[in-house]
Write a structure and sequence with these properties.
Blueprint (H helix, E strand, L loop, with lengths): L6 H16 L22 E8 L5 E7 L4 E6 L4 H10 L1 H4 L7 H10 L7 H22 L3 H4 L7 E5 L10 E4 L14 H17 L4 E5 L6 H10 L8 E2 L7 H8 L6 E3 L5 H10 L5 E2 L8 H14 L12 H11 L8 E2 L19 E3 L12 H6 L10 E2 L6 E2 L2
Parallel strand pairs: 4-10, 5-6, 6-7, 7-8, 8-9
Antiparallel strand pairs: 1-2, 2-3, 4-11, 12-13
């Protein structure tokens, strides 16, 4: 006796048939697997894969028995460790329904004896993005609609000022001829930094320009720079010192009226709680690839709102990072600006909606709203870039990267 077709099977075949009637050559058979399922249908994770690219980007792909896949990104430093760690999560996740995303976040985090830090949290972050991507696709909606959004339909971005895109905000991390690697830089270095930034402001009238210290400047020099640069009205100072000693950053914040921003080396709600409580920064920059994923950024934003602090998500990475950050931007009230939001990515099957007047439209496709071109991605798989120490050329001592 022939078994009755399942609801899922009927839905897929009906969608495929309708698509074929409209354009029979545009919808190959493999596209059927991307069809949404009924919310009451069962679905389980069948496979986790990771991919390390030659530029050190790390991707995770989660597959299900419904043919729906989810993608996420992880920390690019220690790329191989992140990729291997994500595969170990398969011992827990494979065979489970991917849609209780917060439950899985808690299981991965609290199920580990050693928690937090960049690698552990990066693993959670990549898995979390991929699970939200799957969940959004199951319901046929973008992630932000599952998180109470929208609060906006486009996100202010900074990147490269351009008349075509209308981008009118930027950030620079090298505005001097060399790094400030001395424990206390002299007046000559400070004067050069001020002069170069003044020239930059003159070249870009009407553009907000932030300065990234990248945590590589010692507190003694940072205290000199933040005061000397004040007359030229930087947009904000980012990571004026390392985030390992939050009290030092809090003391520097008291010395300037320019807002301080930090977050790219801070992880989970617990790390950002200290920043907020000690008033070490007014702008938070969590990275969706290693601060805890979409689940955690939504909570960090809620904490920040209580302190009237906005989010400016950190993003030096690829398409999942940008798309996931934009989903956050669309569902929180205290979003400020998206880093490198004007960047287009060659790894996508279809480009994101273009930036216009300095704003990026929020992707409104299901899940993260993007489709990874796996052929393009596989062409970039290889050995990641090395992170090596840097040295003071004068005495050979180690300086901050």
């Amino acid at each position: 006796m022939r078994s009755q077709p399942s609801r899922r099977s009927l839905l897929r075949h009906s969608l495929y048939g309708a698509a074929a009637l409209i354009c029979p050559h545009t919808y190959p058979l493999r596209s059927v697997s991307a069809a949404p399922i009924d919310p009451n249908d069962k679905i389980k994770v069948t496979k986790i894969e990771t991919f390390v690219l030659k530029n050190s980007w790390v991707f995770v792909k989660i597959s299900t028995d419904a043919g729906i896949t989810g993608w996420g990104e992880m920390l690019k430093d220690d790329a191989k460790a992140c990729a291997a760690g994500a595969l170990e999560v398969g011992d827990y996740l494979i065979g489970k329904d991917p849609r209780p995303v917060v439950h899985h976040w808690q299981a991965i985090h609290r199920g580990a004896f050693y928690r937090g830090g960049p690698i552990k949290t990066a693993i959670s972050s990549g898995i979390d993005q991929a699970l939200w991507d799957i969940t959004g696709k199951c319901f046929g909606v973008p992630v932000y609609k599952l998180l109470g959004g929208p609060t906006r339909d486009r996100a202010f971005v900074y990147g490269t000022p351009d008349e075509r895109t209308g981008v009118k905000a930027m950030k620079v991390s090298r505005w001097t001829s060399r790094k400030a690697f001395k424990y206390t830089e002299g007046q000559k270095f400070v004067d050069e930094a001020v002069e170069r930034f003044a020239d930059l402001k003159a070249r870009y009238p009407g553009v907000d320009i932030a300065l990234d210290f990248h945590g590589a400047v010692q507190p003694t020099t940072a205290s000199l720079l933040i005061k000397a640069l004040e007359p030229h009205k930087p947009w904000f100072y980012e990571e004026v010192v390392q985030a390992l000693n939050v009290d030092v950053m809090a003391e520097l914040a008291k010395k300037t009226h320019i807002p301080l921003a930090t977050g790219e080396r801070i992880f989970t709600k617990w790390g950002f709680r200290e920043i907020l409580e000690k008033k070490a920064a007014m702008i938070l920059q969590p990275d969706v690839n290693y601060a805890g994923g979409i689940t955690e950024l939504r909570l960090i934003a809620g904490m920040a709102e209580a302190y009237y602090a906005p989010l400016a998500p950190h993003n030096p990475n690829g398409p999942c990072s940008l798309a996931a950050s934009l989903q956050i931007a669309a569902c929180i009230p205290n979003f400020m600006v998206q880093e490198r939001g004007d960047r287009e990515h060659e790894l996508l099957a279809e480009p994101l909606p273009p930036v216009r007047n300095g704003y990026r439209p929020i992707p409104d496709g299901p899940g993260l709203g993007i489709t990874i071109d796996e052929n393009k991605l596989m062409d970039q798989v290889g050995e990641p870039e090395e992170y090596l120490p840097e040295f003071d050329p004068d005495d050979g001592s180690i300086v901050d990267w």
